[in-house]
């Protein structure tokens, strides 16, 4: 009888220790749902698709960059020199109209990256890059291998990632998940909270090129980000030029891109 009691006590202690450990891990990797996260990703849900076919004739004047060319609709802009050591090679142009500054940045990602902006930001940067101001959050975020999260959820490029964020903008951990899953979900929740910009419209590009357009609209002003994904590399345009409010114009301009 004594042995049975000792065995039962031992089992109770082990089970209690296990439950206590699981509760500790659950609490440690619980990231509180931000109040505004649904508003931030609302535009990612309002997505539609456009088809862009590459123009074969290239008789017009083009801008030539390191990796691609595009029709030169920006003769009234002035070239601004960018940092040649940046992980993303930007070609920056500016102009001023009635005291308002307009910019357009053409970019091609380079270096030891997977060449996807948001996936790379998630995988490569630690939380100090975003300035959370919370050393505990940063330490936990930085210790996670985020590539496992991407693989587990079959996320292969930025389009997959942005779709996933739209549909799973906050992942609630539960005590039955593995420790690694809770840690990866924690890192994802932190990233969506601190790194994903407010998006008002998400447009998926299909056709001869694959990619996406993100629009941030503030009154009469609009920030437009266009990303073309080709052969594992990303080619980007980022601008506040008002003519990019016209989707037909974007389709026409992007169709003139020729990746070298």
Care to give the gist of this entry?
The chain is of the alpha+beta class and 260 residues long.
Key structural traits:
single chain; 260 residues; alpha+beta; 27% strand
Strand content: 25-35%
* Gross morphology: elongated
Task: Supply the number of helical segments.
Answer: 8
Number of domains: 1
Average predicted local confidence, pLDDT: 78
Report Rg. 23 Å
Order of helices and strands: HHEEEEEEHHHHHEEEEHE
Q: Give the CA-CA distance, first to last residue.
A: 81 Å
Count all strands and give the number: 11
- The strands making up the biggest β-sheet line up spatially as 1-7-8-9-10-6-5-4
Percent helix, as a range, is 25-40%
Report the uncertain regions: 110-114
Structure commentary:
The protein has 260 residues and is α+β, with helices and mostly antiparallel strands. The protein has one domain (31-260). The protein is built from eight helices and eleven strands. The strands form two sheets. Strands 1-7-8-9-10-6-5-4 form an eight-stranded mixed sheet, with helices on both faces. It has a three-stranded antiparallel sheet with strand order 2-3-11, with no helix packed on it. A hairpin with a 2-residue loop joins strand 7 (201-207) and strand 8. The model is unreliable at 110-114 (pLDDT under 50).
